[in-house]
Amino acid sequence: MEVKIGVLHTPREITLESSQTPAEVEKLVATALQSVDGQLALSDERGRRVIVPANLVAYVEIAQADSRRVGFVAG
Questions:
Q1: Which residue stretches of the chain are H helix?
Q2: pTM confidence score
Q3: Fewer CB atoms near the end CB (10 Å): N or C, the chain?
């Protein structure tokens, strides 16, 4: 699953591929946002961790990962 995190005052978003379910990610986000000094910590499929201070999270988008297409598509 693909997770995108928008960070305040930053033009780019953080994107990672997670093996967690949408419900698990949503619960982690909700827990992190409950505290003023909380942190949103997620792991990607390769074991790397992303930690963002909860007070800087602008939005979190949770979506199914797109299958990557290779080559040209006629249309």
A1: 22-33
A2: 0.79
A3: C
